């Protein structure tokens, strides 16, 4: 809300960190921000949501409770900004939690009498939360995983495991050293939303650069079934071996290939045998030899019926 000459009101609705609809008093329209909500709701809903007549009552009540907001704001030379977060959360065990947070000109406001005036939270929030969840497609997007490293500082090097483009939000990532889980006190995974509704995650550690080849990033996500790991082996100055290991897949049929800059790469490529595990799943591998001094990017592609999308992992030739 701006109180200098003209009042502006903006409202954005989020579902699990994804913006799904937005109202702006400049256009006086509520508009969809995702294709699925636009398809699920008819024109009557958007017309009804665009009728923001309750805004006047809301501002009048705010001015009664907080007289620091000028009644005749058109004659003021100072802008005033009201920020409100209101919503609800439905936990896995069915608990319903209401969320309230308000700030006036950047300072947090407290007072249950103001919260009690919220029409949206009179049971409607949980109702609409369930409706939006029913409308939203049950999508699964496979994470794209990449490991990067930075220069050596104070005899330490930062390794970062990046997973991006995945959905839903829940994901597990860990660093392994010689196959064992490696935990570092100041290391934590950070997850953030993307504009398309998917998520990205980062997990960084500080290591001794001489031991870098001992570390692997392990990622688990509900969208994936087979586990895929790419390792790098320096053969000599002009030769590097990429090995793409695929495990825990079923049925046995699987398609694994190497690509150089998105084109099929067969030169120096070797396919390993497919081995049956004790639990009935399978493992295999595919490797390729490359020149690390050439300006190309190499990717291992894995296609299997247990995957919703083809898995794509980039090899790090300087690992």
From TrEMBL:
For the Ig-like domain, which residue ranges apply? 137-231
Q: Which domain of life is it from?
A: Eukaryota
In terms of SMART domains, this protein maps to: IGc1 (SM00407)
Task: Determine if Transmembrane is one of this entry's keywords.
Answer: yes
What are the protein's UniProt keywords? Disulfide bond, Glycoprotein, Immunity, Membrane, MHC I, Signal, Transmembrane, Transmembrane helix
Compartment list: Membrane
Q: Which Pfam families match?
A: C1-set, MHC_I
Task: State the GO CC annotations.
Answer: external side of plasma membrane; extracellular space; MHC class I protein complex
Membrane association type: Single-pass type I membrane protein
Indicate the principal place this protein occupies in or around the cell: membrane
> Does the record's keyword annotation contain Disulfide bond?
yes
Q: Which SUPFAM superfamilies match?
A: Immunoglobulin, MHC antigen-recognition domain
One GO-annotated biological process of the protein: antigen processing and presentation of peptide antigen via MHC class I
- For this entry, the protein name equals Major histocompatibility complex class I-related protein
């Amino acid at each position: 809300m701006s109180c200098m000459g003209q009042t502006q009101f903006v409202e954005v609705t989020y579902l699990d960190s994804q913006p799904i609809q937005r109202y702006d008093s400049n256009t006086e329209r509520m508009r969809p921000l995702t294709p699925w909500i636009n398809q699920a709701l008819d024109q009557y809903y958007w017309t009804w949501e665009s009728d923001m007549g309750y805004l006047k009552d809301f501002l009048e009540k705010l001015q009664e409770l907080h007289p620091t907001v000028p009644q005749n704001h058109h004659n003021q030379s100072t802008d005033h900004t009201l920020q409100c977060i209101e919503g609800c959360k439905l936990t896995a065990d069915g608990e319903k939690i209401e969320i309230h947070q308000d700030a006036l000109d950047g300072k947090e406001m407290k007072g249950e009498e103001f919260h009690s005036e919220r029409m949206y939270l009179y049971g409607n929030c949980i109702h609409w939360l369930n409706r939006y969840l029913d409308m939203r497609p049950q999508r699964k997007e496979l994470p794209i995983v990449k490991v990067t490293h930075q220069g050596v500082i104070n005899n330490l090097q930062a390794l970062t495991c990046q997973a991006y483009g995945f959905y839903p939000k829940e994901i597990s990532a860990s660093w392994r050293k010689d196959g064992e889980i490696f935990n570092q006190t100041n290391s934590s995974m950070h997850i953030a939303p993307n504009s398309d509704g998917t998520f990205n995650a980062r997990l960084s550690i500080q290591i001794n650069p001489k031991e870098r080849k001992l570390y692997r990033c392990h990622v688990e996500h509900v969208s994936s079934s087979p586990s895929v790991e790419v390792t790098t082996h320096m053969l000599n100055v002009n030769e590097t071996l990429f090995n793409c290991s695929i495990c825990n897949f079923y049925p046995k049929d699987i398609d694994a290939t190497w690509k150089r800059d998105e084109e099929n790469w067969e030169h120096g490529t070797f396919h390993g045998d497919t081995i049956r595990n004790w639990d009935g799943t399978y493992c295999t591998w595919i490797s390729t030899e490359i020149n690390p001094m050439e300006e190309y990017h190499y990717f291992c592609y894995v296609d299997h019926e247990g995957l919703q999308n083809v898995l794509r992992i980039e090899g790090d030739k300087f690992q």
